[in-house]
DNA sequence: ACGATATGAATGAATG
DNA sequence: CATTCATTCATATCGT
């Protein structure tokens, strides 16, 4: 998001205490640091597949798949979706506004509207097809794209930051043109998946781990 | 020791984007740079009104109001409060050390007033904290500003999380740092936040992704 | 010009 | 699901 993030050092912080002496080095970083690939996939799921609150199984599958790109646990996936969703909402929540002080241009808002990245990998349709078969197909991970992928970097970031419309003291900019592009619209996701995917049977059927 | 985390400084000079545009749009800076007036108001809200974590609506209002003094968005306000609060606390965390003995009259509520920064513009002064308004009076009425959320709640909170566990050299820690971290193992921090007496370990669900 | 510090922004992790 | 906390990155600003 924001400025192209890059994260170069993907897989390496692992094995915190394993192996060697053990405690000398603490668990590396206490917190999960997603690799770019992992993020890419997560976003793909989120935006292109409409996954927003994956169920336990989905989480398992997703994390399993993401594990190829680096260490990851189920909770990471869980939190990621939670946060991503929450933040998207939140942003909308208090950014809504921008009372048009001058005229023209609306939408000056949104700080981080990244939406739907258009995947480069081929994937004719993400529609139900894939989803449908999901549920009970152990082994196959029905995530967006099952194949491996050789796409190069995907940079879907966008540069935001508009030209302010600073008001206040001065007559302000007369221009009132809206230089903002990018984040306009594009927010709709099929949303069908959710339904197909989501069995929503029990709200608490996850396993408790911990200790 | 922390992992090489993340983001890169991308050449984000967006001005180039519009670059040669005709109109000057010199947001230049990628990040919001609060004007003195904005800061003044923010601090006023923070210190004199006890606003620490404004809710969405408040944020909207605040940002709307601050917009008079310059470009600003909801997120800026949001982050400002978050950061301000966090840093204040962070600083305090370190500061707490002294005076291990006698705790009674510890400065209660004395946030270091270093605000009232350069106030070149008008505005008499906001009477920086401490003396004046006493934070602990839950009776202060938030004039004007919609204030409704709790303020003045200078929750003593539990500030712990000191780094003492590191182990390493000397005994202390039992050697059971399980190589398998995740939430299964022990965290670097001793029981901190949550509570020292109640081991509430129920998130919503834990998806343990052990392989 | 740097280096240090202050602070905006982002995000993982938790809690309620 | 909303809110909050902690951490960390990125930069603006200031000092020397």
UniProtKB/TrEMBL annotation, chains A, B:
GO annotation, cellular component aspect: nucleus
Protein name (database record): Homeobox domain-containing protein
Taxonomic path: Eukaryota, Viridiplantae, Streptophyta, Embryophyta, Tracheophyta
Portion held of the full protein: 1 to 211 of 284
Record GO terms (molecular function): DNA binding; DNA-binding transcription factor activity
Family per record: Belongs to the WUS homeobox family.
Protein species of origin: Carpinus fangiana
Annotated region described as Disordered, given as residue ranges: 1-32
Annotated Homeobox domain residues: 25-91
Domain of life, source organism: Eukaryota
Keyword tags: Developmental protein, DNA-binding, Homeobox, Nucleus, Transcription, Transcription regulation
Subcellular location: Nucleus
DNA-binding region coordinates: 27-92
One GO-annotated biological process of the protein: plant organ development
């Amino acid at each position: 998001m924001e400025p192209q993030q890059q994260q170069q050092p993907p897989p390496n912080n692992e094995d915190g205490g394993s192996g060697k002496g053990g405690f000398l080095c603490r668990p590396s970083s206490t917190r999960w640091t997603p690799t770019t690939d992992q993020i890419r996939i997560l976003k793909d799921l989120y935006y292109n597949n409409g996954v927003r609150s994956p169920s336990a199984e989905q989480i398992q599958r997703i994390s399993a798949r993401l594990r190829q790109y680096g260490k990851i646990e189920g909770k990471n996936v869980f939190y990621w979706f939670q946060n991503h969703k929450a933040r998207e909402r939140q942003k909308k929540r208090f950014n809504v506004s921008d009372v048009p002080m001058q005229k023209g241009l609306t939408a000056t808002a949104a700080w981080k509207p990244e939406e739907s990245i258009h995947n480069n990998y081929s994937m004719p349709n993400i529609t139900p097809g894939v989803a449908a078969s999901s549920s009970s197909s152990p082994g196959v991970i029905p995530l967006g794209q099952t194949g491996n992928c050789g796409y190069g970097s995907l940079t879907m970031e966008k540069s935001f930051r508009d030209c302010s419309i600073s008001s206040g003291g001065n007559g302000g900019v007369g221009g009132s043109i809206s230089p903002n592009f990018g984040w306009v619209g594009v927010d709709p996701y099929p949303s069908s998946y959710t339904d197909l995917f989501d069995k929503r049977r029990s709200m608490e059927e996850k396993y408790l781990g911990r200790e």
